[in-house]
Design goal:
By secondary structure, the protein is mainly alpha-helical. α1 runs antiparallel to α2, α2 packs antiparallel against α3 and α3 packs antiparallel against α4. It is rod-shaped and about 130 Å long.
Length: about 210
Amino acid sequence: MTDLPELLAQTASALVGTVAGGAIALYVARWQTLRTAEIQARTTTAQENAAVQLAHSLRVHERETTAARALLERLEGLYQWLPSLPDVAEDHPVLSEHARDNCSKAMQSVRSGMNTDLLMITDPLVRDRYRTLVGLLHDIGWRGAGQGHRERQIRDARNYLRHIQHTLESVIDGAPLPRHAAPPRPDRPGDEAWLPPDLPPHWTDPADGS
């Protein structure tokens, strides 16, 4: 017969093992629970942050799209009056006073857009190109830069305007901007007009000399 002390020792040992095993299992289970909760919390936070960033990006894109469309409307308003651009500062326009006055008003609209709609667009390259267009229009229309090259003046303005239209359309579409190109210098010699680096095929219009 087994000694009572030996039996008690074996029982105690088994009990200790059981308790220790249970404690370890409980610790592991609790650690796993806490770890799972932590991972879930991080995942939830990341998803919430991503949702906030996406919503912000959508709002920014919507705002920029609205601004770009407004600027395009201003440019379209000027496009039809560009043949009178060299007449804006002239007392006796080559074409007509009506066309000259409408060209002047359209230029003012484009200039106003620089201080309103353009500020809603965050890309500094888009802003710089639009402001360059405003400067070019002022140089040709008001300063008379490039006098003696009337047809080139008009084509320079038309082609650079189309370059800006293409840039604004890219903003609306969320597409890469057309390649950068130095703007035309209206005081340069020669009759060759400035050409934009990229133009959509649907803008090819032999009727306007582009």
